[in-house]
Amino acid sequence: GDEATGANAVKLALEAPLKQIAVNGGLEGGVVVEKVRNLPIGHGLNAATGEYVDMIAEGILDPAKVTRSALQNAASIAALFLTTEAVIADKPEKAAAPAG
After folding, report:
1. Which of these, 77, 41, 39, lies nearest to 62 by C-alpha position?
2. Contact 35, 21 (CB under 8 A)
């Protein structure tokens, strides 16, 4: 139901930074996320070397405060949106047909 949908949205949001870091390093984001998910706690990808390491031992610190803050802000906006009686949004424009 709604809770499962919300939980999945949070899961995807938490995976997005790692996927992007992997892609920026020339790796496949989905593969990296699966690999990291199965590593011991505290282990992750060293994007500079492409190796999976103990992040703290290697001196790689996750910007957890930034991630936590972003998640809290997103939850706050979602709660506000759900308790609002009306929302105004821009109507998406139709894409023009390709020339030729």
Report:
1. 41
2. no
The domain 2-77 is placed in CATH, from the list 3.40.50.2000, 1.10.560.10, 3.40.630.30, 1.10.10.10, at 1.10.560.10
Q: Enumerate residues 6+ apart whose C-beta is below 8 A from 5.
A: none
Tell me the pTM: 0.63
Q: How many angstroms separate the first and last alpha carbons of the chain?
A: 46
Tell the residue number behind the tokens 């892609």, with chain if given: 23
Residues 1-12 pLDDT 10s: 788 888 888 888
Closest CA to 43 of 32, 51, 34, 52: 52
